[in-house]
Amino acid sequence: MTYLSVDFGEPPRWRKFNAMTELIGRLHPLLVHLPLGIWILLGIIMLLPIARRTEMETAIRLGIVVASLSATAAAATGWLLSRSGDYDPDTVNIHQWLGIATALAGMAAWLLPSARRALTLVTCGVMTVAGHYGGVLTHGEGYLFSSSSSQTTNTLTVTDTLNINATETTKNSGDTAIAKVFRHPFREDIQPILNSRCTNCHSATKRKGRLRLDTEAFIRQGGKNGVILKAGNPSASTLFTHLVLPMDDDMHMPPKGKPQPSEREIRILRDWIAAGAPFGPVEIKSASQTAVHVMPAPVEMPAAGPSAPDMTQESTAIEEAENTDTEDPELQTAAASFNTLGVSATVVSNGLVLNFVNLKEISPDILRAMEAHRGQINSLILRGLPLNDASISNLPDMPALRNLNLSRTNITDMAMRSLTRFTSLEQLNLYETAVSDAAIPEIARLNKLKSLNTWSTRITMAGVSTLQAQKPGLQIETGSATLRKPDSTQRKKP
Amino acid sequence: MGHHHHDSRLRLPEMKDEDTRIDRRDFLTRTGMGLGALALGQLLSPFGAKAATFEERFMAALPRIAPKAKKVVFLFMAGGPSQFETFDYKPGLSKLQGTHLPDSVRRGQRLTGMSGNQAVLPVASSPYQFAQHGKSRTWVSELLPYTAQVVDELCIIKSMHTEQINHDPAITFFQTGHQLPGRPSIGSWISYGLGSENKNLPAFVVLVSKNASKDQPLYARLWGNGFLPSEHQGVQFRSGPDPVLFLKDPEGYEGADRQEMLDYLKKLNEVQNQPWGDPEVNARIAQYELAFRMQTSVPGVLDTSREPDEVFDLYGPDSRDNGTYAANCLMARKLLEKDVRFVQLYHQGWDHHGSLPKGMEYQCKQIDRPTAALITDLKRRGLLDETLVVWGGEFGRTVYSQGRISPDNYGRDHHPRCFSLWMAGAGVKKGFSFGETDEFSYNIVKNPVDVHDFQATLLHILGIDHEQLTYKFQGRRFRLTDVHGKVVKDILT
Questions:
Q1: What ipTM describes this predicted complex?
Q2: Which A residues in the span 238-277 are in contact with B, Cβ-Cβ below 8 Å?
Q3: Looking at the structure, do residues A97 and A168 belong to the same domain, yes or no?
């Protein structure tokens, strides 16, 4: 689009007047309605034969003078308001020049009495269009034809769909299949809320606080006061905290008097942020584990009073609320905490699989996490880590551990002594370790052991036989199976 | 800075998720980074920069039920190996040698232009002996003496069938679930669905045998990501001194300030990403970072010099020659040991329209021992418990000879109606055969398995419901199995 460009650049000497000009600028919406009403009344008087014009002459003249002057004042204040930068420059430009045109046409009607009637009608016409763009600036594009009730319904439907999806998945998955649903919480849940409550003032056409909430890039960018979204931390995200400030707090959003989001919508927004604020598709496995879901716990409203709520307390409350609600919350949380520590953690039906493929050691932090979640660890894959016997004895007791892979570590027979603590151990992989026949008695004490890998260890075939005799059910992979060279003489040439 | 720049940015069309998704070609056109970028684009990331927050937290926390397998090695026999000389034993055919294929069997099937105009379609029986092997007493041809030794680990499907009769559409169909190019490869879907365990290596690695006839070409799009984010495409590791192109530092550069360089590049990319919001920018940032990590990890994985002789003896003498099928099998084991999610090997040269005996003897010799060695090696390391091995081609071959038939020379044309494929390892029954063909191995008489069924089953073994792994693109949700596919429950453990 081409338009006349006005430099809104700000010479330094203007700055001290900023507060005052801002105030005057804000009178624009008040002033603008004065010429509006008068010109329309003048139009009616001139067009309709409701009264003899001579009788109205004085009123018409007065009207034109007041309307022209107030239109000029409205244009001036409008220009000051536009300098705040809160509005879309394109729309502002159109509105600005149409407003100036209205004021000029009005002046012309005043100064050229002979063409007064025609000019009044022109003024009314231009003013109507200017007024429309003013409306676009204030209420956002499409305001006129949008229905506020349909937006609410939309949000509800979306969440209902989510629940249906999840139920279907569970049904489909049967006994063995794994439910995998991909949802788009931002597009399906968050955007409808933002569009119904926020984007009137925070979008392309109107950018209050230099903030736009209509696209991912702008939401990430934040506004005049900085970043508004800290993924994973609702308490540090003003996108959420400003919604739950007391209504009379200056920072409360949306401003007092504007339509407020429901408690449910706030909850959805908070949960979405807590879930890492995914803008893309998210894989979910059931309704209760979606990034965004309806939770029974009410939103913790910060106590009225000091405008800065106690962030730490609040976040704890939120975490607790989440923990009580999610289907398998402990496993999910545990997996997340292991992942942050660099351990590749997978949730399976009966616990956690921890794979240390990306690590060089078991750090004290990881040990602490393992201690905290020791009852949930199902598989531990330590393949190739430079671990010694002490590292194994330092591991916490893991009563649910079924699968332990110690292959290619630096352990010896000593390490086997600390394995009896793992009372559920079913599968043990020792390949390429220094474990020898001396460890057989310790291995034999692992009551539930079902499979053992001894390839490339110092456990001899005699040792394997001893163990096999003690534990007939144990499957021992000795790696002895090698490929025989086929007897090529047997094959007949075709 | 002037208002001009500011305004022009604001006049951009609004960024919707789909609008901002631009493809690789667009990206290269816009950035003008040329070939270097293309090469780095091959280096894929387990976690995009943006994805790091939620992919790790959501993807890693799933699935709920333990998948049977965590990784896959797919030994793709490109060209269409004959079922007659490998696994589908048809002893009755020797009596019918040279007789015309009955119309009751062919049932008016349209044949290819290569054999469709033959006056006769003479039945060619396999001249190779079959014997029963293992505890499962499975019939295996004498061309596969090593495979026969691990047959108790295999789950052979003799009733595979496909929709496509020519190589490229059939391979594309097998790899992407659709015969036309442009959809994501199986490995890409799996990378997308499950993410990567090892952050220093791509989730999807491709190896192509150098010691194979290249009569039917392979294209990189067979391991392409299609419409999925580009970090999910397969990364080809080549044989020779430069296994991953452009991964080594150039001559005269020591790499000391590489990290600093990448940090600045990341900042620049983030500046670009602010207004554009393009997921491919994040993918690119992640790819640079993965490439940097791969500078250290790849030489370690590819270095077979520390493997004991016993290992080379197991895989056969070819395994000392980088880039051969045998060496690639050994490499696959090393990659799987490092938790690479999906390793795809290709071995071409199975398209035996003529001189089939000579061709089959040569091909089988190349793949037989390394394949059996891979199974053995994975098993003794405890990796077969978590790995699914797949061996097979894009279609089978005809019972009748294409061209002249003599006792020791004949050819076979493409045959989509049935072929054999095997799986082994995690999730599938051991020493098991599934499906039956008729006495001509022309039509399936029991338990047909089509390509989408195979794909659904493969995903199932990895813990993925094939109907739920979808990606929305151009207004519809796509899946690997399109609108088809049934999990073959009978072969699962």
A1: 0.77
A2: 275-277
A3: no
